[in-house]
Amino acid sequence: MNNPDQAMIEARPRLSTFEAAWVIARRDFVAVLFSRAFLFFLLGPLFPVIVGALAGSIGGQVQREAVSMEIGLAMSAEDTAAMLAARAQLAQQLGSALPPLEPIAEAAGDPAFDAPAYLEDKRGNFGVIVTGTLDAPELVGTAEATARWRGPIELLAATVLQAAPATFPESRQNIVASSAASERSNRIATAQAGQLLLFLLTMLLAGMVLSNLVEEKANKIIEILAAAIPMDAVFMGKLFAMLGVSFVGITVWGLTGAALWWAAGSAVAEAGVVDVANLPAPAVGWPLFVALGITYFAMAYLLLGALFLTIGAMASTVREVQTLSMPVTMLQLMVFFLAAYTITQPGSTLEKAAIIFPLSSPFAMLARAAMDETLWVHAAALGWQALAVAAIVKAGSQLFRKRVMKSGSAGRTQKPLFGKRHTAPEPAE
Amino acid sequence: MAISEQFKRSADTRPLAIEAQGLVKSFDGTRAVDGVDIAVPEGAIYGILGPNGAGKTTTLRMLLGIIDPDEGVRRVLGHDRPHEIGRLIGYLPEERGLYPAMKAIEAIAFMGALRGLPLAEGRRRGMEMLERHGLAHAATRQIRQLSKGMAQTVQLLGTLVHRPRLVVLDEPFSGLDAINQGKLEGMIRALADDGVTVIFSTHVIHHAERLCEGVAIIAGGRVPYAGSVEAARDRIPAQVRLETRAREGAWLAALPPETKRTGDFFHFALPESGVEPLLRQLIEGEAGILSLSIERAGLHDAFVAIAGEAAARQLQADTQRAAA
Which of A70, A308, B200, B258 has the CB geometry, 3.0–4.6 Å to B169, for a possible disulfide? Predict the structure, then answer.
């Protein structure tokens, strides 16, 4: 007993809840992080991105090929040349509003060229064939195609005939940074983007804790834990371990995303998919918005995680956990929808309800951070959310203790959540 | 407290490591434990003896604070709330459990950490313990790679790594072969020699008889007897086994009325006056004594007398089932 560690044990014969939670969190964090399953978990969200990129690329190519129909010119050589010149002249102003024009080689010098037959033979890649003269151009094609290209063709012909302005006045652009309407609209976009990201991350990560206590029950370790430390420390430790794991995942995905953005971001922005660099600034400013985003993610994770841990702890088998995951996902969706719906109604009763209801509070408050620069509400909301986490953990651990430690063998006689008991009830040992 | 007074009467001046009075616990309306009283002196090896379903595990869980009693009080190492002295207690539950992917040495250190021992010190002590038990080669092997016996030993070492003052073992011998049972008995004795209080539950009488100085016999959630093993055995008078050359004679009248005859042998309880007056009469009556033995009652006999035939039969069936 002369060992200093032993003396410490004798002097303070109880681990505090936080010390005990740290022991659990450390074990779980290391166990999850160095498991093969975690590697797959990390790669999981990258697969849809890769598949999406591939599918988008292929789809884009197909679409480009599908829509790249040309307008065939079956006019006299002079008219054809004039039409091509007019297109080149107007392309600077009208760009893709003008169709690509292609003279039809078979029609050159053939006054008897039969445009309808040519199209019906499905030769070339022409949506419409223009015949006739510049004064009276005739469009041959389907009703849809002729209606679509009639205007541009007439414009080109009129340009050639000088019936339309040959030169365009150069207009000046006087751009303002924002207006009241545009600022609100822009911040709503930022709020939506923030909420969506928060939702996707919690959806992806919080579900992990559902099956977290099944391992302890399956391996019968739960009684050792319950005997040594308070059950709320077990819950707390598991939650924070999984939160730590989530942050590792987010860091990996974030770095991967940043690398992809560095490699192809400008191309994506040019393509008009999304331009992160030009997202409207939130009301509290970007640095604070990001900090609040991380904090609200942690809170959303802990709140949902505590609830899921409690629900999952009631399950005896992995199968039961799987069955539970559907209503849990529905719950997540409902919480998200509630918060998302209130974005456009700041100050409304519904928004206040979304802020007060603990599970939707982080989502609603992140939207607030995008829309409103008031800061004290965030401090109050975070305090409230932390309180709710503690309450759910306490209630969950008590419920778990009551339910699991009922009989001779931990959990062996536990009534499953669904269906009949797996084994005949045993008397208490 | 009746039980502690019982110990005090037996001139045991040691302080009590565990005191429990009137513990009651019900699950779903069924009383699993119904008024259990237990007193365990410090440094004792104490057994809770009873058939499966008697309420042993529930009693231990209440003593450890894993579950709270519906009624009654408990005091462990001087504390009313056992959870507050978790670092001084080691507990091996009936259902053995370890993380399968964990290395043996890490499992021991983790169990120590749960009781407040720093991980590094836990690893150091764990390695020493594994070496002492001839399992040093298994230190870096995952639990799932160990045999059942080795894994059980690792868990037991994890229970002891923080050097608890009170060790609670729930059915520690179940699942162990004879050799490992012998090793475990040695470990329990060594703990007691170091002043550690050991309390274990069992349905195997000879473990309790060989190891314990005190037992609580539990049946149907009640404790009809709690006290020293000696006192339990003393509840049954010693049995006399007599073999005579003569079959008949006036000396037969000297035998106690409840004497039973089996072949050439007579069986009867040792008279309160002792065996000497009877011997004299047998010699004078020329019974021709071939053999005479006085057999002290065993704990099994005491169990039958205290808990009843039905509980004893169930206990025997549990033992046979476990052995099978």
Answer: B200
Cα–Cα nearest to B97, from B107, B86, B112: B107
The pair of three-digit structure tokens given for residue A262, joined into one six-digit string: 């560095």
Put simply, the answer to whether A23 touches B110 (Cβ < 8 Å) is yes
Contact call for residues B226 and B4 (beta carbons, < 8 A): no
Angle between helices A349-356 and A318-341 (to 10 degrees): 150
What domains does chain B contain, in order, with CATH numbers? Answer: 2-234 (3.40.50.300), 239-295 (no CATH)
Cα–Cα separations (whole angstroms), residue B118 to A276, A351, A427, B154: 47, 48, 39, 18
Tokens, residue B169: 């073992």
Is pLDDT above 80 for A325? no
Q: Which residues of A fall within a CB distance of 8 Å from B172?
A: none
Name the closest residue on chain B to residue A234, using Cα atoms.
B114
* pLDDT tens, residue by residue, A195-245: 888 888 888 777 777 777 777 777 778 889 988 998 889 999 999 998 999
Q: What are phi and psi of A91, to 5 degrees?
A: -60, -30
pLDDT band at residue B165, thresholds of 50, 70 and 90? Answer: very high
Higher pLDDT, A373 or A422: A373
Query: CA dihedral defined by A397, A398, A401, A404, rounded to 10 degrees?
Result: -90
Closest residue, chain A, to B219 (C-alpha): A429
The C-alpha atoms of residue A44 and residue A205 are separated, in whole angstroms, by 11
Residue with tokens 């510049």: A134
ipTM passes above 0.90: no
**Quick check: B86 and A5 CB within 8 A?**
no
Taking every pair of C-alpha atoms in chain A, what is the biggest distance, in angstroms?
113
Q: Quote the minimal CA–CA distance from B137 to chain A in Å.
A: 23
Which of B157, B199, B148 has the alpha carbon at shortest distance from B177? B148
Instruction: Tell me the two tokens of residue B105.
Output: 């040495």
Rg (CA), chain B: 24
Q: What is the pLDDT of residues B112-157, one digit of tens each?
A: 999 999 999 999 999 999 999 999 999 999 999 998 889 989 999 9
Residue in A226, A407, A426 nearest the CB of B66: A226
Q: Where are the domains of chain A?
A: 15-43+181-404, 74-160
**Under a CB-based contact definition with an 8 Å cutoff, are residues B58 and B66 in contact?**
no
- Best mean pLDDT range from A24-28, B30-34, B301-305, B310-314: A24-28
Best to test chain B binding among A3, A9, A35, A397 (most B CBs inside 10 Å)? A9
* Residue A123: C-alpha distances to residues A11, A130, A150 (Å): 94, 15, 21
Best mean pLDDT range from A182-191, A213-222, A232-241, A331-340:
A232-241
User: pLDDT tens digit string along B244-259?
Assistant: 988 888 888 889 888 9
What mean pLDDT, rounded, does chain A reach?
79
**Per the structure block, which two tokens stand in for B241?**
């086994």
A20 and B33: CB-CB below 8 Å? no
* 3 state SS for A76-116: CHHHHHHHHHHHHHHHHHHHHHCCCEEECHHHCCCCCCCHH
